[in-house]
Amino acid sequence: MHFKTLLPFALFAASEAQAHVGLEYEVAAAGSGYKATFQVGHGCGPSATRQIGVTVPAGVLEARPMPKPGWSVEIQREKLAQPVSRQGRTVAERVARITWTARTGADALPSDQYDEFVLMAQLPAEPGPLAWPVNQVCEAGRTDWVEVPRPGQSHGDLKNPAPVLELMPAAGGGHKH
Question: Domain count of the chain?
């Protein structure tokens, strides 16, 4: 079979498998820059999505949202308990939450359509899982994608799993060439 023949099937299968809000790439190097693409595959039942709010994990010091036509962006910041030095400057606060809101009902994401919400982030240097809780508010109802697996529990066991990014040790074990 030809790649072009398989492509529509692969895209359909991927969209059908997307039963929750998830990350396009679920693995990244610790300490790296990361483009977090949150994929929204449906609304709340038949209701259109009018708002997506992403809680930025505590170890992420920098995050910048990508604007979306027809949607406003709100950035909530919080003071750090202890300021940190980063690239020659002192960082005293961080982005704690990013929220995209449809400007009008016509801009809302219909339940039978798919879209992506994107931000750039500087990841923490420590390897391990990093949960990104997401609140999906629809014209009628909401779904909070905030559940994180406990030890011994799989992501698939959860009803409303938060997107999780697995941070891997930096390439080369931290040695610079």
Answer: 1
Contact predicate 131/38, CB 8 Å: no
Output the DSSP codes for 57-118.
Answer: PTT--EEEEPP-TTEEEEEEEEEEEEEEEETTEEEEEEEEEEEEEESSGGGSB-TT--EEEE
The encoded tokens of residue 59 equal 């170890």
Residue 114 located in a structural domain: yes
What number is the average pLDDT over the span 71-93?
92
Paired tokens of 104: 């009008």
Tens of pLDDT, residue by residue over 20-76, are: 899 999 999 999 999 999 999 999 999 999 999 999 999 998 999 999 999 999 999
Full residue range of the structural domain in which residue 86 is found: 21-149+158-165
User: Tokens 């709010």 — which residue?
Assistant: 53
CATH of the domain at 33: 2.60.40.2230
